[in-house]
């Protein structure tokens, strides 16, 4: 009797598993079409130095103009293609689109670097650095060090040595790396020690409540300390309010990205935004007051 139920249980599980796999397959096919039909677009979110007010770059963030559902953020579709074949053409499309954008901006006097998010699966392809070199060749006017690759801190876990060596190969091409969502992965310290990334991005989950939550505050302070000790650049993500900005400046983190500065926006809007951006005097004042 119990055995019978167990088998039933498995059958239900199998059916559910099957359904999920079919859905996943369908979304992958749908996204492949989206890529072919030009429904994908990169939005750009500025990163600014809060003390000087200078715009120091932009992060490219994927959006899908879905014919039925409107503009979708990655949360709505990326999980379905994670670790699938499609991850690679999609990642390469993102790289090419960002490079083409930088080339276009440069020709118009906007010299901003762009960082792109690359999935763990894509990054760990044996020919990643080789294909990166080929892609870069197609955009000869863009200085290599204007491209930055953001990898999730947890990415490296599956094969640290391999990731280290491919990051070195890419760095030899001039490309830089940032560890994204820093603090949310596993053993940050070993990876921080070993991975040749020159930037850490403090995850927004620690920024959000750092005013009230002393643990979050301690984590933010810890990451700021680590970035100094290991001589890495630092960006805080999810800076939504002036309060966030002021506290970060006080703690020693100058570069920020978040809705409090600007939301991700299409490339043309970014171009206009940079020309109008004046910095936030309140942050600058807080910085001067505390630091000089
Ligand atoms: P991420 O790389 O950590 O990017 C930051 C996310 O936080 C973005 O969400 C951004 O819109 C959002 N954000 C920025 N400032 C604020 C803020 O002040 N408050 C809040 N609540 N959120 C803020 P988005 O665009 O939905 O992207 C989510 C994640 O999807 C990204 O997290 C990244 O991991 C992934 N992703 C985005 N674009 C790509 C891509 O082209 N390729 C790959 N593989 N992954 C991507
Ligand atoms: Mg990112
Ligand atoms: Mg992040
Ligand atoms: Mg994130």
Major sheet details: 8 strands, mixed, barrel
Strands ordered across the widest β-sheet: 1-2-4-5-6-7-8-9
- The quaternary state of the protein chains shown equals single chain
Overall geometry: globular
Q: How big is the Rg?
A: 21 Å
- Indicate the structural class: alpha/beta
- The N- to C-terminal Cα distance equals 78 Å
State the share of residues found in helices, binned by percent: 40-55%
* Overall mean confidence score, pLDDT: 90
In this entry the ligands are:
ligand C2E, magnesium ion
Count of individual helical segments: 11
Low-confidence stretches: none
Report strand %.
15-25%
Organism: Vogesella oryzagri
Protein name: EAL domain-containing protein
Domain EAL: 24-278
Outline the secondary-structure elements.
Blueprint: H1 2-36, E1 40-49, E2 55-66, E3 70-72, H2 87-107, E4 114-117, H3 120-123, H4 128-137, E5 147-152, H5 160-173, E6 176-182, H6 188-194, E7 199-202, H7 204-208, H8 214-229, E8 233-237, H9 242-251, E9 255-257, E10 265-266, H10 267-276, H11 281-291
Parallel strand pairs: 2-4, 4-5, 5-6, 6-7, 7-8, 8-9
Antiparallel strand pairs: 1-2, 1-9, 1-10, 2-3
Helix pairs in contact: 4-5, 9-11
The chain binds ligand C2E and magnesium ion (3 copies).
Walkthrough of the structure:
The structure is a single chain. This protein is α/β, with parallel strands linked by helices and 292 residues long. The chain has eleven helices and ten strands. The protein has helices spanning 2-36, 87-107, 120-123, 128-137, 160-173, 188-194, 204-208, 214-229, 242-251, 267-276, 281-291; strands at residues 40-49, 55-66, 70-72, 114-117, 147-152, 176-182, 199-202, 233-237, 255-257, 265-266. An eight-stranded mixed beta barrel has the order 1-2-4-5-6-7-8-9, surrounded by four helices. Helix 4 runs parallel beside helix 5 and helix 9 runs parallel beside helix 11 (281-291). The radius of gyration is 21 Å and the shape is globular. The protein starts with a helix and ends with a helix. 33% of the residues are buried. The chain binds ligand C2E and magnesium ion (3 copies). It comes from Vogesella oryzagri. Residues 24-278 form the EAL domain. This is EAL domain-containing protein.
